[in-house]
Amino acid sequence: MKNSLKISRVGICLLLAAALTACGGGGGGGEPPGRFSLVESISVDGGANGNDWAAGVALDGSGNLFVTGYVTVSGQGTNIWLAKYDSDLVLQASTTLNGSANADDWGYAIALDGSGHLYVVGYVTEAGQDHNIWLAKYDSNLVLRKQITVNGSANSIDEGYGIIFDGAGNLYVAGTVAETGQGYNIWIARYDTNLNLLVSTTINGPGNNTDKGRFLALDGSGNLFVSGSVTQAGSGYDIWLGKFDTSLNLLKQSIVAGPTTGEDKGYGILFDRTNDTLYVTGTLTEPGQGYNIWLATFDIDLNLLKSVTRNGPVNGEDVSYSMVLDRSRNLYQTGVYTENRGGSNVWIAEYNTNLKLQFHTTYDGPANGYDSGAGIVRGLSQDLYVSGFVTEASGDYDIWLAHYRVSL
User: For the chain, which end, N or C, has fewer CB atoms within 10 Å of the first or last residue's CB respectively?
Assistant: First the structure.
């Protein structure tokens, strides 16, 4: 990482959740204030007076935290950013990657295998091809071992958003590719750990327009579940779920359309093997309320079992991006939540498996601007790590990483 990167560290708080406002966060919207204690948070400034953002996050068995996103670099647009931290958010290593066109490049998601390697997906901008899906393999010291790119037939915007490792040597990746005459199609692929393509497929939504695959989950039988969005004629952008076998044959799909023609998007997805239930989160547009946080359960055939929405007190942008399940089968999610205090704030919440909101907290960055969580992972014991960004006084976004502890 370039020496111009600046890291700001908020001191160890270990606050009671009811007093989180002293560290920039707190409950909102009339619900219980929660049982989240902010242990520590840091922000990272890329040093070029531009936006810097963290998305995918993963934790290894030794408690090391791996994060990807982007930083703005003068003369290069945004570069893919990859960093390794210890469990106390002390930086161990970092690196950046600039695509061949010297333009915008983003990292979105990370997967770890059992051999100390990490796999990162996102996109790079390449000359004459616009955004291309980018997939890379690194060792645990962030040394690049291999990278590949994928260009759709339309030479337009192709981006990778989600990645998961199945434990048997297969990487599944999801995103979007631009295809001639079809707009943007959902793209799903399976690679081996040397990044050799084994099989891939695309899905064109019924509206022949913008369709995106985002996050992935696996059940105990090797079935792959993918969340995303498709465009439908007459109802706009709607939540899409697909179920695939290991050869990426589509077994089932489901579309959830909100009550308006506004945008509905599926993001975080996970499978609970205890009860064979799929949990999906994202955002749903509701009349007069804008984007609302959406959380739902489905059975293994993608039949909707239950769904709930959450509207912030200001009727603004409320989105859940990622989820994680703990050993007690509590669901934790992060995203963005719009409040009277601080505008759009980082959202962190706990739900039970009946989709009841148990506790929540928000984090307001230093500038009372747009702040958002993006990735969440469960650490040892009752620890949670969250990635995202906060708005600084300069008006630019800085990478934000936080360590929370959940009280018993």
Answer: C
Q: Nearest-CA neighbor of 20 among 40, 8, 37?
A: 37
How many domains does the structure of the chain reveal? 1
Provide the Cα torsion 390, 394, 395, 399; round to 10°: -30
CATH number, position 194: 2.130.10.10
The closest alpha carbon to 21, from 340, 373, 399, belongs to: 340
Structure-block tokens of residue 13:
């708080």
Q: Are 321 and 265 in contact (CB under 8 A)?
A: no
Measured in whole angstroms, how far is the alpha carbon of residue 338 from the centre of its chain? 19
How far is residue 43's CA from residue 398's CA, in Å, rounded to a whole number?
6
Partnered with residue 229 across adjacent β-strands are: 212, 239
How many residues make up the chain in this entry? 408
Coil, strand or helix at 328: coil
Structural contact between residues 379 and 63, judged by C-beta atoms closer than 8 angstroms: yes
In DSSP notation, 53-76 reads EEEEEEE-TTS-EEEEEEEEETTT
The predicted-structure confidence for 43-85, as pLDDT tens digits, reads as follows 999 989 899 999 999 999 999 999 999 999 999 999 999 999 9
Question: 30: exposed, middle or buried (C-beta count within 10 Å: 0-12, 13-18, 19+)?
Answer: exposed
Which two structure tokens, joined as six digits, stand for 87? 């469990």
Residue 285's CB is within 10 A of a number of other CB atoms, namely 22
Which run of H or E residues covers position 395?
none
Using only C-alpha atoms, what is the Rg of the chain?
Answer: 20
pLDDT digits over 149-172, tens only?
Answer: 999 988 889 999 999 999 999 999
What backbone phi and psi angles, to 5 degrees, belong to 21? Answer: -60, -25
Tokens at 406, concatenated: 């959940």
Asked if residue 1 is part of any domain, the answer here is no
Contact 234, 181 (CB under 8 A): no
Tally of CB atoms within 10 A around 60: 14
Residue range(s) defining the domain that contains residue 33: 6-406
Q: How many CB atoms lie within 10 A of CB 90?
A: 12
Given a cut of 90, is residue 141 above it in pLDDT?
yes
Q: Which whole-number Å values give the CA distances from 321 to 21, 112, 153, 154, in the listed order?
A: 23, 20, 29, 28
What pairs with residue 134 in β-bridges?
Answer: 122, 149
Residues 57, 232: Cα–Cα separation, whole Å: 32
